[in-house]
Amino acid sequence: MASPHKVLLSLLSITLFSFSVSPVSSQHEHPLDPLSPVEFSLIRDAVKRSYGASGENVTFQYVGLDEPDKSLVHSWMSSQASKKPPPRRASVVVRLHGQTHELVVDLSSHQPSIVSKEVYHGHGFPMLTIEEQTDAIELPRTHDEFIQSIKNRGLDMSSVVCSTFAVGWYGELRSRRVVKVLAFYTNGTVNFYMRPIEGIVVVVDLDLMKIVKYHDRFATTVPTAEDTEYRLEKQNPPFGPHLRGAAIVQPHGLGFDIKGHTISWANWKLHLGFDVRVGPIISLASIYDLEKDKYRQYAGNIMWRHTEVGIPDVKINEVRSDVSLVVRSVSTVGNYDYILDWEFKPSGAIKFEVGLTGVLEVKAVNYTHASQIKEDEYGTMVGANTIATHHDHFFTYHLDLDVDGAPNSFVKTNLITKPVAEEGVPRKSYWTVSSKTARTESEAQLHLGLEPCDLIVVNPNKQTKVGNNVGYRLIPGPIASPILFRDDYPQIRSAFTNNNLWVTPYNKSEKWASGRYVDQSRGDDTLAVWTKRNRKIENEDIVLWYTLGFHHVPYQEDFPIMPTLSGGFELRPTNFFDRNPVLKTKSPEPVILSCKP
User: Fold this and answer.
1) Are 163 and 157 spatial neighbours (Cβ–Cβ below 8 Å)?
2) What amino acid positions are annotated as catalytic residues?
3) What is this structure's pTM?
4) How is it modified after translation (predicted)?
């Protein structure tokens, strides 16, 4: 067995996150450390300085670490003591005079400077900033037509709030950088998403920051505020169900060590970074085939167990408690809250889970009972005058797996049924496996759920003692695939969801499955487009792109706030170790607490 075995990963999701960081020095111990507040200030100053008098009109749409090439990172890791980290750079997207500018800022010099500056002329626009969305939602309050529409509905303007929504793309030849602004009513509740003011659509040009279209097409009954509150202090007795408390204790201190942005726990070591677009970025996750003397907190699950009663006069009952290190991020995107967990296990497995909670998107109707609905309303009646609409959630993970080295291959192992050919055998069939290594991108594009199979990334250049290629396999959870027509505009833009799994050769520029500029994109810069080149992926540095999804048909239990709905998948060692890597792990001693009645 190679010693020590390790797997290196870079794990990304496409969901938007916000985060905060503490002020730290601009000096970094690791080339993948996220940008610090000091560096953000230096970047801002360098960009504004480069534009001279126009610098004050620049808006920053995206600022993130321009990650060094993988080869430079690996070279630095192999000799950290004698080498300086690779040059540190930032990738910046700004808007100025109605144009999108792509910049690279060099942070290595005493005075950071712009080393690359290009104007983007393609389709789509960059991320929306909080500041411009805040400005946009204030515009209707001083717009005469909006004021009159609110007055006509008999509503109090002081209880009206607005929110921005993307406009999408539906075949228009030209696009303006605009957003829709919709109105809601808060009177009697903070859960304003449950009280939409239907019929009013405001369109705001973000570059001009003014209302360019206004529609008041119809009016419906605004749903009542009754039963929409979710704050505990606003609930009335009786309360329940009653849950007994659980104590979380760490009698020996933290079970993990943090140095800078590097986390060490049990037999795992990983780097945790952040990006404003994807949130947490876990990279260089390594597991060693060594035992470490670290305390582990008891988690209650089972790592492995077996009871044996087949030996006369002998009873064996062996069990080991499972313990996990969970890296969790929570992001609020409008009405929804997304909980993303990366769960690292001593066995070498990594489990990924997405939890959906928050508030449903609803529309107001004049119905008060489901029996009144005679045509498709595209959702479920969850309350009087309230329809919660059908919708999808898709999450694409960028999995850069370097399994015991960069050159890897993707193997699909099909489970196939065969007839029994031997005479005199009562069985008629059995199943076996048939494996195929994908040579090009097209051979690795999979629509899962139709046939049983194992999906394995192997290193064809490394074998275990008995000769199996070392690898990791992807174990999907519940499968959800898009059910729109392929030529429907939303699906053209999200064609990266057409397959549950894609495999590409590593390319630093191919970072976002949906393309760099998603707002009003046209689907011409996505994973589905890149893979048309059908590049070689056998025994190469490859990336897996896995999409998990949810088709959400709302129900009344999701109202007024939704219990968490979860889904996920797992990466699991596959002939990576010579035997069970947690065979000799001891369960932590239970902690006995004295409780008073």
Assistant:
1) no
2) 293, 336
3) 0.89
4) Topaquinone (TPQ) is generated by copper-dependent autoxidation of a specific tyrosyl residue.
